[in-house]
Amino acid sequence: SSAAQVLRQKLVASDAQQGDQFGVSVSISGDWAVVGANQDDDLGSQAGAAYMFMRSGTQWIETQKLTASDGGTFDTFGGAVAICGDVVVVGAISDYALNVYDSGSAYIFERVGTTWMETAKIWASNLNQQEHFGWSVAATTNRVIIGARDSISTGVNAGAAYIFDNNAGTWTQTATLTAIGALYGDSFGGAVAIDGDVAVVGASSVDVVGTNAGAAYFFQNFGGVWSQVARVTASDGLAGEFFGTSVSIQANRALVGTTGHDHGISNSGAAYVFEDGGSGWAETQELRALDPEGQDLFGVKVCCGDLATVA
User: What is the pTM of this model?
Assistant: First the structure.
């Protein structure tokens, strides 16, 4: 049986303005939630912001508005957000990190009491123009993963993802993840997720079973070395389905969204469950909406836990 899901509260920004795009990204951990608004104009047009909410009893209360310490026009800070415990990471894909055009960056905030303090600004060690580092972000307590879907690490727009670890209070890049056999335009890093020593990265434009069919890649940390351990695709995948648009992982279960999946209804979308029972990652279930309609894009966002959530 399953309990009915009831709307508890509608969250809005205390200083909401037209066009802010509050809600473009969201993440929740325990009694804290973070909501991105990447078109907020406080620090300049489309500089971006993120809002912290804390649960008090049965109510969620806005406690703080986060902006980048060096934020400016068109940074789009808040396009991607993640929270885990006392760590928040926020992507700013159009930031000129080290004055490199649209290279992108990410900001880490850590909680002191009830206040979130910016403690680090991070970017890719192999910085290049228009790589959009921060396109996707995910976090664990002392580790974050950042996607750069337009990285040229293994070819123009092939994409990459970067692991940063907190070592004695300093956030340091410890790995660069790229796909084996990566090609031009794969968009690897368009979605990222991490749980402990396992990371999953979506590459929605990989042509593995047809143009833009998509794939997802699993990486595992073996004694400080991150290695690709699996590439998965949908069992019924076809061209143009963009499998890997979204990814999520918890323990030995992962969820992958594919917005272009049809099942006779154009772009209705789907999500796939993968599990590792000890012999590798294998598809165990396909999820679809009970009332699919054309252009629903079901699977644009996924969240994996004891319950699977698909938007």
Answer: 0.94
Q: Is 178 exposed, middle or buried (0-12, 13-18, 19+ CB in 10 A)?
A: buried
For strands 77-84 and 225-232, give the pairing.
unpaired
Terminus-to-terminus CA distance in the chain, angstroms? 22
Whole-angstrom CA distances from 115 to 88, 108, 207 are 12, 13, 45
Tell which wins on pLDDT, 310 or 52. 52
CA dihedral (184, 185, 186, 189) in degrees, to 10, reads 110
| Average model confidence (pLDDT) across the chain | 93
- Contacts for 214-222: CB closer than 8 Å, 24+ residues apart: 214/241, 214/242, 214/243, 214/244, 214/245, 214/258, 215/179, 215/243, 215/244, 216/243, 216/244, 216/247, 216/254, 216/256, 216/274, 217/177, 217/179, 217/188, 218/254, 218/281, 219/177, 221/175, 221/197
Going across the sheet that includes 188-195, the strands are 188-195, 198-203, 215-222, 225-232
